[in-house]
Structures are given as C-alpha cells and as structure tokens.
Amino acid sequence: PKMEAEVLKILGGVSSDASVCSPLQDLRVSATCNRVPVVDGHTECVSLEFAGEPPSIDAIKQCLREYTCEAQDLGCFSAPAQVINVTEEEDRPQPRLDRNAGAGMSVTVGRIRPCPVFHVRFTLLVHNTILGAAGASILNAEYAAKKGYIV
User: Fold this and answer.
1) Mean pLDDT over residues 122-141, rounded?
2) Lowest CB count within 10 Å: 62, 83, 107, 116, which one?
3) The pTM is what?
4) Could you tell me which residues come within 8 angstroms of residue 121 by beta carbon, excluding any fewer than 6 positions away?
C-alpha cells in the first residue's frame, strides 16, 4: 500500500504555494517490491488500470520513451539524458545489467504487456542507492536551486 500511494503522489500535483500534494485520482496501481539479495537495485512489478480506454502497448512504450522531467529542461547536472529507458528484451530489466542506466539516475522499464487483471503490467528497475537516495537528494537540491527555492 505505501508504494502504491507514493506512485499516486508522484504522478499527482502540488498546490500553487507548494504546501499540499494532490494524489492522482483516476489511476489504480497494484505494485509489489521484490526483496532479493542483490548488491544494488530495486525491481518492481507494476500493474496499471486506466480510468477510460487504455492506450495500446506501443503507445505506452512511446510515452515512457519520450518522457522528460523539468530537471532536464532546467539543465540540472545530475538529471539523466534519458529518464526512462524502455527495454524490449524478455529477461530485462536485471539489476546487474541495468542498475547503472543513466549513471544510476534512470529508470529501466521492460516486460511491458497486457495484464489479465488490470490493463497493463511491466517490470521496472531503479538504482536504490543512487536514484533512491543520494543521487535523488543531489538532483532535488540542484532543482531547488534552479527554481530559486534555495540560494
């Protein structure tokens, strides 16, 4: 439940004075985190159901590939060139092979396919100690400085 709630917060919005988060309302998320003994990397299996007619698998892949974030637009040094790497290999993503994508600051998504329960499912991998902790903190500070929130 925490992971699913966090996704909705991340995809949601923020009030104009940045004091309140508004979780996304029209997306249902079912996710699980695989706890396995790897050196680095968190792998998640995610299933999504859309509010209306779901996009095609190809449209989802294109949307993920074309996704950019404001940190890239602002020229933050730590922002990866490609935020989301979509892989077509059936056995990817894998921690040892994909955790360092974008110097550890990118998310690798693979196994994107129709889901028999929700509309779509996929597997994603992030580097837990780079994007999940230290690197994200540095990127957040760069972003805050570029936006003028800190000096």
Assistant:
1) 90
2) 116
3) 0.81
4) 45, 46, 47, 48, 111, 112, 113, 114, 115
Instruction: Go through 116-129 and write b for each residue having 16 or more CB atoms within 10 A of its CB, e for each that does not.
Output: eebbbbbbbbbbbe
pLDDT score at 110: 98
Q: Which residues contact 85 (CB under 8 A, 6 or more apart)?
A: 98, 101, 102, 106, 107, 108, 109
118 closest CA partner among 57, 43, 9, 28: 28
The total number of residues shown for the chain amounts to 151
Element (H, E) at 60: helix 57-66
Pairwise CA distance, residues 127 & 94, whole Å: 11
Backbone φ and ψ of 141, nearest 5°? -65, -40
End-to-end Cα spacing for the chain: 36
